[in-house]
Amino acid sequence: MLWLLLLGGVTSCSSTNDAAEPTCAGDFSVTLIEQLRQKPKQTPAAEVTQYIYQNRTVYLVTGGSSTSYVFDGCGRVICSAAVGPGNAGDGRCPDFAATATNPQLLWRDPR
């Protein structure tokens, strides 16, 4: 379970307005990438891609397992996303593949 391995480095968040993107301590993508670097190489290679989803910055982590996870900017798991053939996700963000925009590959494991 990739997300269980990653939750150890979750940063804290605070928000005064639920509609606004929360303010987090630091950039979670940096923490996420560092955690993935410390794990054994996956096949296929782990990737972190930044998107805009529901008007907020999120990070999609794909890799060795058939499960892909979407994290918010603070490191909380939003959902297991349905992003590939045979991957139904967990149903918490069924529109992710269709509505997430502005993909930016932040990191792909080079090992």
Short recap of the structure:
By secondary structure, the chain is α+β, with helices and mostly antiparallel strands.
Question: What key phrases describe this protein's structure?
Answer:
111 residues, alpha+beta, five-stranded antiparallel sheet, 17% helix, disordered N terminus
Mean pLDDT: 80
- H/E order of the elements? HEEHEEEEHE
Count of helical regions:
3
Structural class: alpha+beta
The share of residues in helices is 10-25%
Radius of gyration: 13 Å
Topology, number of strands: 7
Sheet bearing the most strands, described? 5 strands, antiparallel
Taking the alpha carbons of the first and last residues, their distance comes to: 20 Å
Q: Strand fraction band?
A: 25-35%
Q: Largest sheet, order of strands side by side?
A: 6-5-4-3-7
Global shape: globular
Unreliable runs: 1-18
Would you kindly provide a written description of the structure presented here, covering whatever features stand out?
The chain is α+β, with helices and mostly antiparallel strands and 111 residues long. 17% of the residues lie in helices and 32% in strands. It contains 3 helices and 7 strands, in the order αββαββββαβ. It has helices spanning 2-6, 28-37, 96-99; strands at 13-14, 23-24, 47-53, 56-62, 68-72, 77-81, 101-108. Strands 6-5-4-3-7 form a 5-stranded antiparallel beta sheet. Strands 1-2 form a two-stranded antiparallel sheet. A hairpin with a 4-residue loop joins β5 (68-72) and β6 (77-81). The radius of gyration is 13 Å and the shape is globular. 25% of the residues are buried. Mean pLDDT is 80; it is low at 1-18.
